[in-house]
Design brief:
By secondary structure, the chain is α+β, with helices and mostly antiparallel strands. It has helices spanning 3-21, 42-45, 52-58, 76-86, 110-124, 223-226, 231-234; strands spanning 24-29, 32-35, 39-41, 46-50, 62-65, 72-75, 91-95, 98-103, 105-108, 130-138, 142-145, 153-158, 165-175, 178-198, 213-219, 238-239, 254-255, 265-272, 275-283, 292-297, 303-310, 313-316. Helix content is 20%, strand content 43%. The relative contact order is 0.08.
Amino acid sequence: MPTFLLCCCLSLCSLTLSAEQTAQVQILMHESITVAHEAVTVADLATLSGDEHILAGIRDAVVQRAPDAGLRTVSKQQLRAIVRKHAHGASLSITGQACTITRRLKIYTETEIAELVRPYVEQQLLPDAQNTIRLKRVSGKISVLRDDVHPVTLVVEPISAAQWGDIPFVLKAQHQDRTIARSLVVYHVDAHRTVYTATQHIRHGERISLDDLQPQHIAITNTGFAQAPTPEALIGTIARSDITVGTVVTWNIVRNPPLVRGGARVALVIENDGFILSVDGTALGDGAEGETISIRTDRGKHIVRAQVTGPGTASVIQ
């Protein structure tokens, strides 16, 4: 074979072998995508086919970042430039001109926000009252980016400890320990309960009997009404002052009968560092169980403050 023909044949064989050894990658770009993560990769932007070894290196290559809800576009030229860095000389075929990127949003409507907060309102209400709950207002919907890597956390916090009337809460959307959105939610609660009112005029110092009380179902408007005692707790208590007919009987206007009388002898117990000392004294005033009174000790005639613990007994307050 002539030398010229032999060289031509060798060149053709070399070109054919080189073409057979070059990896092929086909990339079909999407026109638009919605993602739930910030880092947008080649695999997000396009459908890939071809040499699997090459594809393994380019699938997770980051082409664009989408940290917020803004609209972004990746062109064919931008995609080609990124892919070439990871394609190791492979032959690239890219179909498409550009891809539009948006972040996936989760939108919480006012109804959804109210439903999320309501269980927390119910936990805060008076347990023994008849409560009527209604939604007063929600400051607006919350829109947050979906994030598969760092999900958004919703936190409900009370603004006050109110148990009736307007009860405000704030719903916070937190992402990586940072508050990114919030909504004010206000529920209104009408609370009613049964209280006991005076059926007749009760004078200061008189004991309360069952005949002095009648039930009445009222709206709760103050803490005294909210904490109004039961008739069982009221019977035998003493009026702190005159109580007129129809007055709601609360702990503000009655007291338990004294277990220690002023001028009476008192057994006084003093506890300190594990030691218990008992001395006698004289009460300088009346005191019911749990109340604090002044007592003059027999030894040294010191005056101490002590808490009444039972009939004729008290414990020194350290």
